[in-house]
UniProtKB/TrEMBL annotation:
Keywords: Membrane, Transmembrane, Transmembrane helix. The chain crosses the membrane at residues 15-36. NCBIfam families: SGM_5486_fam. InterPro entries: SGM_5486-like-assoc. It comes from Streptomyces flavidovirens. This is SGM_5486 family transporter-associated protein.
Amino acid sequence: MPVLDPNPQNGQKKLLLVLGAMLGITVIIAIIASLASP
């Protein structure tokens, strides 16, 4: 079973979406923290 399926099932797509959202939120928090630090 490949890690990145060309046609992922609904559960896998949802999991990828959640992981992507978590990664994006982490990046945004890191950018805000680096801007807020003097």
